[in-house]
Structures are given as C-alpha cells and as structure tokens.
Design goal:
Elements lengths: L1 H30 L20 E2 L6 E2 L4 E3 L11 E7 L22 E11 L4 E13 L2 E9 L6 E3 L2 H6 L1 E8 L5 E8 L2 H7 L1 E2 L2 E2 L6 H4 L2 E4 L2 E4 H7 L23 H13 L24 H4 L26 H7 L17 H13 L6
Antiparallel strand pairs: 1-2, 3-4, 4-5, 5-6, 6-7, 7-8, 9-10, 11-12, 13-14
Helix pairs in contact: 6-9
Length: 364
C-alpha cells in the first residue's frame, strides 16, 4: 500500500514538473518572435514590436535582434548608444562596397537607443529616445520614440512634435567628472532626413562594412560583426579585404587614421556627393581622406567667417583652421556638425588639434 502511495506521489510530481516545463518552453517560444507587420508600422509604442525580452529598459534583445556597434561612434552630447538590427525571416542584406551602407531587404529595422548612465544626482541610467529606421517597399522611414520618466515605455513621437522636434533638460557627469546640464535635443523628422539624406532619399549611416569589420562581444563571445550577420543568415557575404575605420579613442592606432575615422562617422554623411553639404569644398568619407586636400589641408574656406580663418586646415596652426573653429563652437550659425550636438566634444577637438599640429607643409 505504501509502495502504491509513493508511486502515485512520484507520478504527480513528474506530471507537475512536465507541465511546468511545457509552460516555460511556451513562454520562451512566444517571446522569441518579433511582432512586425510592415503595413501597420510604425506602432505607437516601442514595446509592441517585442524587440526586447523582459523589462523594456534593459534592452535585452529578442531572438534574431542582433546588436552591433560601429568602430567609431557619432558624438551626440556624450549620449551612449545601443544599436540593433532585425530582418524578416528568410531575408538577407548584401555587400555593396566598403564605404556604402549594406543593401538591406524590405522589412529591415535598425534600432538605436540613446541613453546616459551618469544622470545626476546618483549616477542613474536614463534612456532618452529610441530611433528606428524601417525599410518599406517605398524606401526607409523614420520612427522616433520618446521614453517616459519611469523608463517603462517609449511612445511614438508624431504630429507637431515630430515636425518641430523638442528638448529635455538633463544633468549628467562626464568621464572626467565634469557635471553638465544640457537641453538634450529630440530631433524632428526634417532633422533626421537632413543627416540621413543621400540622393534626396533617406539612408542609414553607420551600417557600412568599413565600420562593422571589427569584433563585438556577443553573449557567446567575441566575433567579427560582419561574420556574425552571415552566421545569423542576415548577410550573404562580404569582402575579405575591407579598408576599415578604427575606434578614434584607440591611441594605439595611427593619429591620422583615428582622425579620418572620426570625421567619417561624424561628418562624412553630409560632406559627400549628393548629400546635404555636397556644395562644400571637402569630402570627409574614410575612403577619400587619404588625400589631404579632401580634408581641407591648405584649401581656402568656401565661406567667410573671420579674416584669420582663411583655410579649412592651416598646417601646424589649429587657431587658424576653420574646421577647428567650427568643432569648437556651439553657435548654431558656426558649429559643425550643425545637428546632433549642443555642446563641444572636447575629445574630438583635441584629436583634430593634435593632428593639425603634426602637419608641416607650406600652403601655396
């Protein structure tokens, strides 16, 4: 009798255990699917896409939502970024050249969140915004999501707010412990398009093979980011001889390569053919700046600023270089980049200054 009773108990324990296992498997299976209807996006809430598992603010990517990070990052008032890419099942991007954005399939979503982890007081973390670029059959569209103070949801910015943009006051601490109070800028659709415009069409900026041909520390270890995309079925193939940018913060790399990488990610999207500043005298994409004249060395400024600032780059003299002046300015009529920053990037200015001081040629 006792034996039968013990067998019954074991049976029920096993049954209960199996049912719990089924429930867990079901939850994991359901959570592994991104919710995406190309005819219904952009959704009004970021959570609706199910790009992330668990608490939204942790940005723990769902299955097939792949993190990435370009070798050098665009400066945006010292905001940190988390970036991800997702593509519909069975679709792949293709390689289109070292310095050209990957050719993504319809349905691709590029996800980029801006945050600070030293918000004062208390060095807390605050996500400011998440920007999506979604590729529809007609081309790329922008979707801007503003996070609430509770960090539980991000709402789609629409109407006049997306037309005119907005600002949010924050106080944060820089790496050198300097405390900054700024009005963080939430861009308008026009501002998004201004930077992402090529051939008068919206286009991604950072997802170029030259920027992704570096390793990333994924949850299962380091791997080249382009190879990761191939392994995930997101990329057909890529060149084995990519001329790549570097992390401009990496002092073990040559100074000129660091500067060229910095200019590429921060400036080249406007200073190229058929882009916003194609009328300017300089071309700042990494593939072109092997020629010093493309960066502006000894090139006369194409608009007057000050009599002492005749050349875009005056060798050995940052104080007489237009580029140094513009990167050091916060005046909207003078600063460069015009959009994406309201304060000076001290480290970027110092990098440019060091590089200019290494130039010793005489201008004609």
């Amino acid at each position: 009798m006792k034996k039968i009773y013990l067998l019954q108990i074991l049976y029920f324990l096993m049954l209960f255990s199996c049912k719990n296992d089924e429930k867990i498997e079901s939850i994991e299976s359901e959570s592994s699917f991104v919710n995406f209807n190309i005819d219904a996006v952009p959704y009004s809430k970021l959570s609706t896409y199910a790009f992330f598992m668990g608490d939204l603010k942790n940005m723990n990517p769902n299955s097939k939502v792949i993190p990435y990070e370009p070798a050098s990052s665009l400066f945006t008032d010292y905001a940190l970024k988390k970036r991800f890419v997702w593509m519909p099942n069975g679709t792949k991007a293709s390689y289109n050249g070292d310095d050209k954005s990957l050719n993504f399939p319809v349905g691709t979503v590029l996800i980029k969140s801006f945050y600070y982890n030293t918000i004062q007081p208390g060095n807390t973390t605050k996500i400011m915004e998440t920007r999506l670029m979604i590729k529809k059959s007609s081309g790329w569209i922008f979707a801007e999501y503003l996070w609430n103070d509770a960090q539980t949801e991000a709402e789609l910015v629409t109407g006049t707010d997306f037309t005119s943009g907005s600002s949010k006051n924050i106080t944060f601490k820089k790496e050198n412990n300097e405390v900054m109070n700024i009005d963080y800028r939430i861009p308008s659709e026009t501002e998004c398009f201004a930077c992402h415009k090529l051939d008068n069409k919206p286009t991604p900026i950072g997802v170029k093979p030259q920027n992704l041909n570096v390793s990333y520390n994924y949850s299962n270890g380091l791997k080249n980011q382009l190879q990761k995309l191939v392994d995930e079925g997101y990329l057909q193939s890529y060149s084995s001889n990519i001329v790549s940018t570097v992390n401009y913060k990496d002092t073990s790399k040559p100074l000129d390569i660091r500067l060229r990488s910095y200019l590429d990610i921060n400036c080249a999207h406007c200073h190229q053919e058929n882009a916003r500043c194609d009328y300017r005298a300089i071309r700042l994409s990494f593939s072109q700046t092997t020629a010093l004249s493309k960066i502006g060395v000894c090139v006369m400024a194409d608009e007057p600023i000050d009599p002492s600032l005749e050349r875009i780059i005056t060798p050995g003299n940052p104080a007489k270089s237009v580029m140094h002046f513009r990167l050091s300015s916060t005046d909207e009529s003078n600063r460069m980049p015009l959009l994406g920053r309201t304060i000076v990037h001290d480290e970027g200015v110092e990098l440019l200054k060091q590089w200019i001081n290494t130039l010793n040629q005489n201008c004609p």
